Amino acid sequence: MRIATIATASLALALAACGSENSGTFETEDGEQGEYTVDSDGDGMNATITTEEGTATMRSGENVKADLPDGYTIYPGAKVVSVTNVDGTGHKGSLVMMESADSPDKIASFYKKQAEAAGIKIEMEMTINGGKMLAGKGEGDRIFSINTTNNDGTTGIQLTVGQGG
Q1: Are 48 and 57 in contact (CB under 8 A)?
Q2: 44 bridge partner residues
Q3: For position 21, what pLDDT does the model report?
Q4: Are 146 and 118 in contact (CB under 8 A)?
């Protein structure tokens, strides 16, 4: 399932989460059609997206355990704000939102070491407004990105790791 399809379906799911519909259909910009179902429990949201390319499941919420690939960990001492795990035909990944008192540079360095140890080649590294962004790819369509932002003494962390796509 392509990233664009997942993004479009995610938007449909977000809209469904705001309303009362627990299932429905959607169409991408490319005319691809799909179906989705959403259900919530006390610990998060579960969603299933089905298109011609296959089925993807998504689990998202504050109390969802991150399904990180081997070699990646939650940043030590960070507060996990939200986790979204996606598993589908030919791809799997996690988006983890965290907060820490450590500096953006220290956090980015921590994850850069983990990514390189996992065989990721860092292709982009930049500093913006006191935050740090890194992104790269590895064999087997593995992806990695980290975005840290400085928010008045608290560092926001957005970690994305996955495979396939």
Answers
A1: yes
A2: 41
A3: 62
A4: no
User: How far apart are the C-alpha atoms of 148 and 159, rounded to whole Å?
Assistant: 9
Upper half-sphere CA count for residue 155 (Cβ side, 13 Å): 23
Q: Encoding tokens for residue 9?
A: 């379906």
- Kindly report, residue by residue over 26-37, the tens digit of the pLDDT: 887 888 888 888
- Look up residue 71 and give its two tokens: 């070699």
Instruction: Name the phi and psi angles at 3, rounded to 5.
Output: -60, -40
Give the single-character DSSP code of 16.
Answer: H
Query: From start to end of 6-120, where are the E strands?
Result: 23-27, 33-41, 44-51, 54-61, 79-88, 91-100
* Phi, psi for residue 44 in degrees, rounded to 5: 160, -165
125 residue type, one letter = E
Q: Note if the pTM is more than 0.70.
A: yes
User: How far, in Å, CA of 33 to CA of 51, rounded?
Assistant: 6
